[in-house]
Amino acid sequence: MSSSAPSPSLPSSPWRFLWMFVREGFLCRVILLNLAAAGGIGLMGLEPVAMRGLVDALAGLSDNQRSGTSAGTAGWTAEVMPWFLLLGGLWIASALFNRLRELVDLHTSPALRHAVQVRLFDQLIDHSSSYFQDNFAGTLGQKVKQAGQSSIELLEILTNDIIRIVVILAIGLTLLASAQTLFAVLLVGWTAAHLTVSALLARRCLRLSHAFSEEVSSTTGRMVDIIANAELVRAFARRRQELAGLSDALTGEIARSKELRWFLTKMWFWLFNVLLVFQITLIGIAVSDATAGRMSVGDFAMVFSLASIVGANVWGLSTRMLGFFEQLGILSGALELIVRPHGIPDPPGRPDLVVTGGAIRFEDLRFAHPGSDAGPNSGKTGAVFDGLSLTIRPGERVALVGPSGAGKSTLVRLLRRQFPLQGGRILIDGQDIAGVSLASLNRAVAEVPQLPSLFHRSIRDNIAYGSEGADDAAVRAAAARAHCDRFIEERAGGYGTMVGERGIQLSGGERQRVAIARAFLKDAPILVLDEATSSLDSETEHLIQDALLGLFEGRTVIAIAHRLSTVTGMDRILYLEGGRILEDGDHAGLLRRDGPYARLWRRQVGGFLPDESAVPAGDVPGNLREEVR
Description:
The chain is an alpha/beta fold and 629 residues long. It folds into 2 domains: 325 residues, ABC transporter transmembrane region fold (Up-down Bundle), CATH 1.20.1560.10; 226 residues, 3-Layer(aba) Sandwich (Rossmann fold).
């Protein structure tokens, strides 16, 4: 599914969810699965009829041979052979229907699992940033995989187990009633009671199964979290503590598993014993009738065979009921987590953002992070912005500076609609970004973050991610402009070098240069730099600054910086503190104003001397003095 199209809404009910996929692309295959299952068990259900005829023929042949009225193979051919051929034909035909069902399932279950996982992942990836901050990545991925598997398990039960039991019960009731009405009554009563008790026990067991599943998800998420931070664990020598914590979590998983297994053991014990009692009772009555002459040997064979077939299928369905409710619970849990309203709605039909100049207008912004009790107009300090307004002209280069927590990164996140506004609006070239498609907004903004994200793919793939369909020449040109071509070519794999999970095979500076190359390739009209050169050495930073000057041409630029020497050449510098703009001007003008920016500048160029006035604004090192001019 194209990333430019918003994901369609999905049903949150597991039954509506499953039916949606069946209706949209699997209806014919599901009908074939049902027909094949019905044919296979239906023919097997006629086996007792053939068995009765064969047994009666053999009994008659034996009586004739003892009386001397028939001999040898003539009796076999005339009386036994048709029933024998019918029995063998039923077996073969039933097996062929079963193989047909397996063949149809071969083209159904994998495709259904694929469709479910793709649609759910499409729904998942459109959630807001806060959603991913609140949930383990490993847990989310596991839920998507589990939903795909649960869907095919539920379809298997519906199109095989339930169809089989319905057909075999219909045939069994008809045949048993023909032998003796009591048999049919016993079959109906026992089947209804057995399946009802099985369903009740399975639903009770579902609570235990759900608790076990949650423990597994929790321990999996914890394990993935530790693996993702393996370097941090080693750096603080916390291997033993993390292992102990994981062991404690796994102990809880073991307890839930034992509780579930013990309940299952007791449940299967009683259900299977009840099945044996039913079969023994039914066959005992048949033996009594046969010895009393009220039933032929063939009828007895038919009852015996039917009792075995019906008992096996009812037992099979009762054991599958636990799986049915368990898979239903797993699918419900996945849908509950994933199929929920997106924090940043992006309904279909919204127009694309059209950037002509790149003018940005923040109007009366009001925002507090999720979970904060400081909302708009609350008067509490927890609000990041409470009425912030700012205009950035087309092609203007603006730097955001100030202490941590001032709202610099939050401002650019709001620009990219990663958080919902609680008041005010943001305009790009006069268009409210809340009313345009999110994909077009993301295409218009290129961002180089402080901690760049890289896929566990080749360097070439990570750079080419900036432009769909980019060829090798474009990738190499972007790498050269970002001054990362040298370190790439020095590696044995060159541009095909795998960077590892989150780019772990590259240094921090190398990751940032790859991210800058990716931004070059994206060629967006609005550029956001969030400490884009913070991980670079001084020499490489100088090269990158030259390259960025080329990238700035014709673009609106917002740069976040803590190292003020990197933003002295910007058109405007905004000093933010507490979600408010305290100063606005160019570098030289702000130094002359001798306000918060000038004090921060003196602390940086003075080596963090205790006396803020120790280094006057004009008394700066030679290289920085050049930057001031």
